Amino acid sequence: MTAAQIFVPNLLVAMALNGAVQALQIGAYAARYAGVKTGRIATAISLFNLVMTASRLATLVVTPALGGLADATANSATTQHLSSVPQGAIDIFAAQLRLVVFAGTIGTTIGLVLMPTFIFLFVRGIGSFERSGSVLRAVLRLTDIGVLRETAGSLRFPDIAIARTFSIAHVPRKLLIANVVVTSVYSIGVLAAYYASVLNLRARTTAVGLSGIINGVGTIAFTLLVDPTSAIITDQAVKGERTLAEVRSLIFYLAVTAIAGTLLSQLILYPAAWIIADAAHLFVAHHP
Predict the structure, then answer these.
(1) Per-residue exposure over 256-268, b if at least 16 CB sit within 10 Å of its own CB, e if not
(2) Distance of CA 193 to the CA centre of its chain
(3) Global confidence as pTM
(4) With 80 as the cut, is the pLDDT of residue 191 above it?
């Protein structure tokens, strides 16, 4: 296994896109803080849902690059008329997938580091949306040279000492645990399916098809376990039952547990791939 075998163009594309998507998803958390700060919570939640939906759709852009990696690995066996992929090729593919997951961890960390900038952008976005009355116009405003210049000037990195001011006392432990689990599953849904397609060539198409179910379960789990609780905390802050500092702590620990989730996904990637491969095999086991 050499670096040249691992770092192919499709891998670099997948890593870059996955890192950007994960950073965007973490940045979306800033919408809740911006909503409390501006008192426009409904508008902020609307923008939050917009960004989260866009980031979910953006993961589809990563899929072709991953598909190219999986096809190249599978073709190494099919062109030699083998019934399974050689272990060496599987090891290379596994290393590539882990690098894609690692890129997601880096992207999540970047999203946390740039949280002050995301907050600034959401505050500006809420104001722009209220003035224009159109999400599309508000988004198009980002292409304005003056806005781009101001946005670049807003780039700021948080002081590490500020992290000590974030209190976990008022953040539900169950919420943070759920966020770790949901993030770990969602981070590898597509990757584990492609991994399974290489582990079981006879069910490769079925395995890839199962990725939609996994991501669907992850989205539903986020909607049921993570989003409602964080929304309640945000609403309580708007009503004065919680402080702005508590919302800031919530956002910080959601981002931290998301990073932990991407690290956990490294551990469950291989077991998840085998489970998917076995599940896919059930659909083709009775066919010649």
Answers:
(1) bbbbbbbbbbbeb
(2) 16
(3) 0.85
(4) yes
